[in-house]
Every structure is written in structure tokens, then in C-alpha cells.
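re: ur msg from earlier - yeah i can do the adenosine monophosphate complex, just paste it... oh wait u already did. ok heres what im feeding in:
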Amino acid sequence: MKPKKNKPTKPVEKKMTVKDRGKKSAAVAAAPEKAPNKKTYNVLRGMHDILPKEEKYWKLVSQAAESLAEYFQFGRIETPLLEETSLFVRSIGRGTDVVDKEMYSFEDRDGARVCLRPEATASVVRAYIGNGMWNMTQPIKVWYQGPMFRHDRPQAGRYREFFQAGFETLGAKDPSADAELILVAYSFFKDIGLPVTVAINSIGTPEERERYINELTSYYRSKRSYLCEECRARLAKNPLRLLDCKEAGCQPVKESAPQIVDWLTEESRSYFMKVLEYLDELSIPYMLTPTLVRGLDYYTHTVFEIYPVLNKPDNQAEQTQPGQPRELGSAGSPDLPAGRQGAVAGGGRYDLLIEELGGRPAPAAGVAIGIERAIVALKAYNEENKIVFSEPKFTIFFAQLGDEAKRRALKIITDLRGSGIRVAFNFFKNSLKTQLETANSLGVAYVVILGQKEVQDKTVIVRDMESGVQEIVDQKKLEHILKKKLETESGK
Ligand code: AMP
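and the outut:
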């Protein structure tokens, strides 16, 4: 057979493989302006990205929660984001906004009805029962931090994915347990620098509540014609929620409504008084709030919410004197100092939930802090009071000149990290002038300079930014010399 002559071929356009397509989309991602007809993606409604510029706040709140947990001996618990839907339906209850309108509930690939957790208490209780924690020495004190999901109507401070840090005490019923949880949450806000006040109430036992709800329902029925559309629906579905109404037209009705404290037995009342005595002793500012009932079914006895006190830093002292709680009018939360801002934390006792979810009866209580709300309130408070948020500063900047110096610099910086010295640098700027400008804007005390010559000599130049004096230092001695300089610096 005659060998085929290799015909010079014109370049054929190769079909794009999946791999190539991946390459192309990476290029597109780097320069989106070149692909105007490609779909771009936005974050889902009600969800948000947490960007590096927010990091200082997130670090602050995480560290505050973690160190309180450590001090008050709450062990960390992590539960899955996904749980059986019925866990939340049974605990939070039908007729609540969370269950009726806000759950991200769907069928998974096995046909199981699952739900992105709207809160973590039910999950913690499930874990307490399922892991036999009820069999250990009681109480079990746990804390968590993580995202929750509620298909809520997005607005300022209200997201569909939001973070909570929560503390739960399971297997104990004592006023000190309720007070400790309030103290932990209160201390959290104190530690991050946000003045807050506690709105508190007792909703007693289910029997007491039922008697109260009967009274409340017949009172509201007699006022039906004055009520807003939503309140009329609440009257049929979940009468306690009538007390949450913020509609102006419903306020006069709400103000004269019967109050749950009047329907508590002596025992429940005395329990509540003991919790308040603890708060007095701890000088935690609180307001008795008869309309505070919390939305979820599982609460019993103590319920509370925490609100930021904005505007005046000394407002807190004005709000309550220990032993003299300020009684809120029955208008309740709208009268709170930062009603417009919303609660930054909420919690209460849930003595029947463990049994309701199939466990051996055991009392429990908990609190959840809304991280985004805490950060928003803290920023607003700092802004109003001209408080500058201090960040850890860099004291050393490493400047490099040339490729070889850059390589060596990265090694030296890594070694310095090993000895705990924090160094700022920017390898994407090559001129010494620009690097020194960056160093200046960071306000560092020293700049370490590594050029071609220093690489050869195995030295670096250490420049004192205040005096402008420079010295040549052996690379091997750099760590020791910087440590000494930093010690002197911190003593200044
Ligand atoms: P809850 O148990 O529902 O009262 O939630 C406790 C805390 O979580 C609230 O006081 C808020 O600070 C926060 N929180 C609740 N729902 C949202 C939401 N949709 N977006 C942001 N934070 C929320």
C-alpha cells in the first residue's frame, strides 16, 4: 500500500472538551466584562456574603461567645444543618410563623421530609436524647454557633440565613439556671461593647397558659371589630401572638388586655420572682414585659429577649436600677429602647420539650444570640458614640526588591511567623517607594528591606520608620533583633 502523503492541513478548529470549557469559564470569571451575555449570579434574596472587611466584627463576637462558654463551662455542640422536618413541627409548633411560613422544608433524594434548621434548640434536644446525654451527670450545658434558615420577609437585620450563638442548660430547673443564661447573654453584649437591657416575663405552665389564653381570647373576641386582619387570624390560630402585634390600631386593645402574670399560680410566680432576684443581685438591667410571650410553642415559665440600648451610653443606668425594674406599659416591646432595631437575643425555659420529643422528662432552658443583629447594633452604637473599633496593628512591614528577594522574603516571613512575629507585606508591588508608602499607611514601626545585594550577603536592612535610621542585620539574627525591638516598642 502506498503510504498516504501527509497533506499539509489547515488548522482545524478543535471541538471544545469539557476540560476546555472549564478553562474558558475560569478565564471568563477573571474578566466578566468580556462576556456580557453570560448569566451572572446574585446572592439569594435574604442571604448575604460575609466579606473580609466584616471579619473584625465576626471575630469579636465569636471570641466573646467562646470565652464565655469556656468560663461558664458550656461544652461545644455542633448539630447538622439538616434535620427531619417533623422535629421542628413538633417542637416549635403549628400556628407559629416559623413552622407555617418560614421553614426551608423539602423532600431529599430518598423521599425523606427534611428541613434546614430554623433554630437549634430542637436539634440540641434531639442530640441530648439520641446520644444518651440524659444519662450523664446533669445538667448538661452546651453551646453552639452556626447558621439558621428562615424564609422570612427580608428587611434590615432580618435574613433568610443568619447566624446564632446559643447556650442551653438541659436537665436542671432552678432559678439560678435561668439567671445564668441571661447573665451569659448579657455578658456577651457587655464584652463586645454593646449596652443592652433585658425584657422578661413568665408564661407559666401549659395549664396556666391555657386558662390565660381562654381569658385573652374572649377579651379579644369582644374587640374583634377593632382588630387588624392579621390579629383576626391570630385570634383563631394562635391567640398568644395577638400580644406581638405592632399595628397602631390594635395597641389600645392590647394595652387593656389581661396579663398572663395574673394567671400564674403562686408556685410559678415565686419561681419567677427568684429569677428576678438573681438579676437584681447581678445588676442586670431588666424590664418586666407582660406582653412578651415569644413565638414558639415550647416555652414554659421564664421568657426573655435582649434589646440594645442605643444613643446614650449612660441610658442603661437610667433604664433600671437594681431592685427597681421598670414596668413596661402593656404596649410592650414598641416601648423598648431600640424597638426599631429588634431583639438581639431571645430565650427561655422549655421544661416539656425533652419529653415532647420522646426523651425522659427533664427541664431545660436556653438563649440564642442573633449574630448579625448584634453586629448591626454594635456598629450603630459605635457610630453614634464615635467609638473607633480598634484592630490589631502590624508593627513590621517586609519590603522586597526583585524575584530572588521575593522568594527569600517569603521564607523569612514564614520563619518569623513560627516565632510569633506578625509581618505585613505586599508582593504585588515591586517599587521600594510604593512599599514604603504602604508601610507608612499601616503605621508600622519597622520595615525590613531585602534587595538583590542583601540576598547575596545574607543580610537585610531594618529601617526604623520614626527616625529613618537603617541598620544592616544578618538574616540569622533578624528574629532575635526584631523581638528585642518589639519588646522595647510595647514598653513605650
Ligand atoms: P428567636 O429565638 O427567633 O427570637 O431568635 C433569637 C435571635 O436571633 C433574635 O433575637 C434575633 O437577634 C436573631 N434572629 C431571629 N431571626 C432572625 C432573622 N431572620 N435574621 C437575623 N436574625 C434573626
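cool cool. Residues 119, 150, 152, 157-159, 162, 164, 343-346, 368, 370, 372-373 surround adenosine monophosphate (CB under 6 Å). ping me if u need the other ligands too
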